[in-house]
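Ops channel
N.P.: pipeline sanity check, posting one input/output pair.
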């Protein structure tokens, strides 16, 4: 998965292997899959699997995302269930 952010300083503080928290945020009638770095919003998840991930979060499953690659402002994450 990838994520989008307007938080350029946050991307500068990331490195491969950094673990981010994933949380579901409701904004009106819509949901946003937000990633947090050290408890602060870092961006939102994008990708074809977001809808399924949202459903699992609504069912109570917790997830975390590990940074697998950074290319400029594009951050690629590996999202997995928290155990």
């Amino acid at each position: 998965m990838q994520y989008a952010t307007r938080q350029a300083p946050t991307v500068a503080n990331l490195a491969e292997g950094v673990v981010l928290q994933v949380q579901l945020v409701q904004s009106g009638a819509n949901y946003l899959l937000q990633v947090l770095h050290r408890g602060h919003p870092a961006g939102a998840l994008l990708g074809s699997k977001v809808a399924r991930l949202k459903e699992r979060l609504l069912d109570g499953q917790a997830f975390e995302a590990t940074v697998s690659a950074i290319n400029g402002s594009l951050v690629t994450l590996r999202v997995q269930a928290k155990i």
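N.P.: looks fine end to end. The chain has one domain: 2-81.
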